[in-house]
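Notebook, p. 212. Picked up where the previous page left off. The plan for this session was modest: take the two constructs that came back from the sequencing core last week, fold each one, and keep the raw output in the notebook itself so nobody has to go hunting through shared drives later. Recording the first one now, exactly as returned: residue sequence, then the structure token string.
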Amino acid sequence: MDYHDMLARLGEGSAHPGGFMATMKLLDGLSLPGGNHILEIGCGTGRTACYLAKSGYRVTAIDLHRNMLDKAVRRARRERVDVRFVQADVAALPFPENHFDVVFVESVTIFTRWRSALAEYRRVLKPAGLLVDREMVLSGRKTELMSRRLKQFYGIRTLATVTAWKKRLTQSGFAKVEVQEQSRSMGKWGVDHDPHREMDMTWFEDERMQRMSRTNDRLLAKYGKKLGYAVFAARKPLEVKKER
């Protein structure tokens, strides 16, 4: 069992900085046009995807974790919303070019090979389409030991500063790169009520779960002050027609 298996068993719907309240605040501030076709990357148990569908958007949502997706499908049925859930890898999205108005990501890209992920986000966006990506960022000096421990436990592949992320987005072909929100610490967020959460209560008695919980607490205590988060917004450039 790894960290993502644990989240799936717990039915966690918003395991990103700020939690679900931050997601709702972000979406409210973006004021996306009604009817937009939104692709959510790493949808987990489907909480945000269902919220977007209730808000009047066409929603496609992907995740690589089968258990997460199964819970997402059941959530959508309970909430009586229409979401297309697809098991897929961000490095090889099974969608055509220029397909989505918005690609919405929260705490996913750091777990991927970022060059491949950003290239795929850009490919499936329509010209002038919007990428919104909330990610953990480096706000202090990292060490090789820190990087190794965070990768081993959480599966994090990349830790970078806000400046480095902006540069990566630009290098990946995005334009109008902006930082919508930024924090030099991970902060604390309250546990909000999720009436459709599916939690396997037996896992609280599992020694592996208890061991992972202790490890998580130790890592956050040791490295938490060096980690923050930021929300990036960027556009896919308009295609320029070449003169014949």
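Okay, moving on. Second construct, recorded in the same format:
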Amino acid sequence: MTTTPSPSANGDTVRRAGSSGIGAGRPGFLWAAPAAVFFGLFAIVPLIMVAVLSFASWDGLSAPEFAGLDNWKTLLDDPVMIKSLWLSVLLTVLGVTVQTPLSILLGVWAAGHQRNRAVLSAIYFVPMLLSVAAVSVLWRAVLDPNLGVPAQATWLFGDGNLFGTQATAIGVLVFVSTWQFTPLHTLIYQGAARAVPQVLYQAAQIDGAGTLRQFFHITLPQLRNSIITSMILMVVGGLTTFDTVLILTQGGPGSDTTISAYYMYQKAFKSFDYGAASTIALLLVLVSTVISLIVVRLSGYDKMRGTMEGL
């Protein structure tokens, strides 16, 4: 004998609790436990240790001694430290400004069906396979003022020493970072562009919208969440850049490319002042977090509106 659900007063069928499947099969906390433990051991614990060392004086050999706010006062009065913060922000802003539009255009193009698109995309994504150190060594050799390309094309590069002035050295850093990391952000936009419903473009074509209008009124709005995610990655990566500066410019000429991460390295491994280095590290964490929160808040990304909204 079969039973049928009893109708409700308004004619709707009353379903048994849980029959809708909402929440069924949802993984419990144990599924996240390994990742939580890993994150705690290799992120939270080191961050706490750095925070503690920022209030101590330590040369790496003897026992740390409590120094209160001395490290913070010293760094805030250090002109090199202030300059390094502004350089870090400058490199980050330049990186975001250059990489974002370039990544969007390449990502949207790579999501299409052009001829030889797959082959060209595979070649373009090669820099993603190389480490930052390998890329920096490569471009250091290519741009060497004595044996590199600038030395052979003085009509274009002047004396050939692109590392001799602050402007050209910063330009080299921005160029190398763009060359290596733009493919990563392009990949983000490529996946997001492929997820845009084709019905939107079909409706726009019926209304007579051209390719340019479709890009600005359909593609870009649908890429909104991906743009914010990409920008946050760029901001955090830009403020913590180290390998590129270490290999390409060593903070020179003088201290003109000494960004905060490189200054932290100098304090820790050249001056053996691990208290000051920890203070710089904690300051970078705070600045990166604040900027990321501002970007998320101003963009409304925290509301996580779906790209399918309105369909």
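Notes on construct two before I forget. Residues 8-21, 307-311 have pLDDT under 50 and may be disordered.
Flagging for discussion at group meeting.
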